[in-house]
Amino acid sequence: MVNVYESVDSNKRKSWLIVAGFMVFVSAAAYVISYAITGGDQSALVIALTISTLMTVGSYYFSDKIVLATSGAKPADKKNFFNFYTVVENLAMSQQLPMPRLYYIEDSAPNAFATGRDPKHAVICATTGILEKLDRSELEGVMAHELSHVKNFDMRLMTIVAVMVRMLTLLGDIFFRVRIRNSKKGGEVIFLIGLLFAILAPLIGQLIQLAISRRREFLADASSALMTRYPEGLARALEKISADREPLEAANRATAHLYIVSPFKVNISKFFLTHPPVEERIRALRG
């Protein structure tokens, strides 16, 4: 049986191994694509990296405002949301974290998410459904999970990964739009390799991004158990949330990965899921 400390350490190692492998892949793909485009001139790589970085950094700094606005979230005060406020307040104090801003979404579907670029700018948002349908220990498990995302700087990590994915996508687009200047001997081979990378790299990048996201969910679950010392609370909460069939109308494809459980009740390949299967998460918590 794996204890909670070993689970946290294991999930951290696996996350960073995936990130390290992704960085190697991105570097190789970017070099090959830009070489095939320019015949050795790396200016395309610099331009693509600059553009993708500016795009992602802009969304990083304003992500909380964008997500809250698109979700129709409203500020939650202590008077009207006593359980919600005091649960988060107690957890934040126990972890020596700044009190995050709290918001709620008027929706009966139970779910919650965290956003913000660091603990000082963190936001936790919950639907009225989750606040009504969970008891205090279950709600504590969910809020500890969301605070773990804040404490583990998951938003910052996913921003770095998003920069790399956007760079691959942008380089692939450039490859198909500009004239190939590599006319040296062997250029046809480089062109074919570049073509292969241009087609496959964005897809592989998205799959790796999803894999990292799934590993961070396992890490947040384990960190939640460490915070509360009661993994059963989160396990029961996940059972209730996943069993609820009401659609979350405020969610969209751009924000789905933020929620504690995917708001879309669809059966798709495990490789394309933004979250690990709930059954696996519950089994890990109870193990």
Rg, alpha carbons: 21 Å
* Helical run tally: 9
Our measurement of the CA-to-CA distance between the termini, rounded to an integer number of angstroms, reads 6 Å
Q: Would you tell me the overall average pLDDT? A: 82
Strand-pairing-aware structural class: mainly alpha
Output the strand order for the largest sheet. 1-2-4-3
Proportion of residues in helical segments:
55-70%
Poorly predicted sequence stretches spanning 5 or more consecutive residues: none
| Inertia-based shape | elongated
Strand content: 5-15%
Please write the string of helix (H) and strand (E) elements. HHEHEEEHHHHHH
Tell me about the biggest sheet?
4 strands, mixed
Total number of strands: 4
Short description:
This protein has 287 residues and is mainly α.
Descriptive notes:
The protein contains nine helices and four strands. With 287 residues, it is mainly α.
Task: Summarize the helices and strands and which ones pair or pack.
Layout (H helix, E strand, L loop, with lengths): L3 H35 L4 H29 L2 E2 L6 H13 L6 E5 L6 E4 L7 E5 H6 L2 H16 L2 H24 L9 H42 L2 H13 L34 H9 L1
Parallel strand pairs: 2-4
Antiparallel strand pairs: 1-2, 3-4
Helix pairs in contact: 1-6, 1-7, 2-6, 3-5, 5-7, 5-8, 6-7, 8-9
